[in-house]
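Can anyone check this?
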Amino acid sequence: MPVKTPVHDLSGLTVRLQLAGGAFGRCNYLLYIGGLTIICKYLNPPLMECKIEKNKQICNCTYSCSRKGMCCDCLHYHRRMGQLPACYFSAEAERTYDRSIENYLSSR
């Protein structure tokens, strides 16, 4: 059940912040802009355990780096670089260390 719903006009769009009780599962508040739900924010998100050792067993990357087994860190790193991580490539394409999207598309 909503606790309170302040409404503000922002450039012609109605913006409403709805604080949620248990009605939305673990979600603490919802943000609506123009009638669309934009975000469900967790004030106290559940912690997710990184399974580094398990990830290392299935990681096909042959490059030695500090992100091995930490898939989230690896993905964020390669995304910032405009690349894809090794797990997107075949074993042959991975060994070239060319993580470009162009190489991924040409190796398919």
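Reply from J.R.: I decoded it. The beta strands are 7-10, 13-19, 29-33, 36-41.
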